[in-house]
Amino acid sequence: MTMEPWFITTDPVAGHWHQQRVIASWSNLPTTLLPIGLGYYVMAVLVQLPTTKLIRFAMLPPLLWLIVTASMTLDLSFGRPEHAYNNLVFLSMFSVAMRLTTWTLANEPYVRVCDTENVSQNGSAKNSSSTRSSSYSDGIRNAMWNACDLCCNLRGLGWNWSKGLHIPRPMFKVESRLTFAALSLVRFALYVMALSAVDLFTKRVAPEGSGGWSIFDPSLPPRLRYLRSSIITVVAGFAVWITVEMTYQFYAAIFTLLFRQRPSQWPPMFDQPWFATSLTRFWAKCWHQGVREWLVAIGSRPLEPFLGSHAPIGAFILSAIFHEVGVRGMDRDGDILAVGGYFIMHGVGVALERLFKRVTRRRVGGFGGFLWMWTWQIIWGNPLVDAMARKGVIARSEFFFESWNPAVFILNTLQWIWETRTQYTVI
């Protein structure tokens, strides 16, 4: 198929940031990450104790400086910038920085409560003001123990700050740690297979030998062109969902087996986002809530006195910055209009739903809401995925090294079986 000259862009090359990075090794990881981890833990202890706000404010600037330094100096791609692993460094460091900032600004101490008391019957976190909570956070010793949970507990399960958190119900309840861990490992393996298939698909739809490329193929008629780009966009969205689920299932198995956590501490991460009947429901309940804590505390809550019910637009703006930083972390220069625009326009979409409710006195929902949600996702997802593809994030970024891709291994095995069977048939 003949491509227009602008369809294939220049092959991305390692930029200034990548050239200044040092390949991660056992010699530099402790000196780079250990101070951040230690500071992160100490802040998790302090946020549970009263009258520590001044100490937290004093600790925040040096910790942020260490985070920025680690983000810009560590190379987890091992000298191969086409791999996606530096994206994880930037996203992780940005998330840690936002959590540290949230803990610094907290006016009330964080309190750990019972898991069984923290979940209401409709699957949402209660306002945890139980009188039993004092037995969990009374004193520095308990704070040091609870800080281990707080550092890893991104959704706030079992904590008083998770008010309003939606907790998806599991498909079936499992009490046994061993059974739950085994099921998590099976899910992990299935998600690995699914992600490898998606990774292989994205490589196949890219023009051969291309680095950066556009998902809009000008050699196709407009309808087929945008149908193709929309399919790629939806597949890319599923890839994000699969990646988060895969990671979550792995940690669920590890923490229940090695750290003896209960299965109830690992409820589902998503609540069927593909069936959401509104943008509000998609982002508030169906999509993962792993970064909800700091998106609300830093993004939307400061805007409530000025914007009232429209303050959540601040969370979408902060999310836009978060994901733009992730792209730039791969040394791709980013595209704030396409990447950031996707999240900002979803904030606009949520505001439109609230306006619709105010005018009609009806919530967006049902089959019409389902179509609206998917239409908005695809409209603004197309420029986002196209920007990623042009920057080489799709064609050159790899979740798996080519020789380790499970889908490639299965296809090669099936091909070998077929060829062997054909040879015996001929004989």
UniProtKB/TrEMBL annotation:
One of its GO terms (biological process) is lipid metabolic process. It is a multi-pass membrane protein. One of its GO terms (molecular function) is O-acyltransferase activity. Pfam families: MBOAT_2. Pathway: Secondary metabolite biosynthesis. InterPro entries: Wax_synthase, Wax_synthase_dom. Residues 266-332 form the Wax synthase domain. Its main location: membrane. The chain crosses the membrane at residues 29-47, 54-72, 178-198, 231-259, 364-380. The keyword Signal does not apply. GO terms for cellular component: membrane. Keywords: Membrane, Transferase, Transmembrane, Transmembrane helix. It is found in: Membrane. Belongs to the wax synthase family. This is Wax synthase domain-containing protein. It comes from Scleroderma citrinum Foug A.
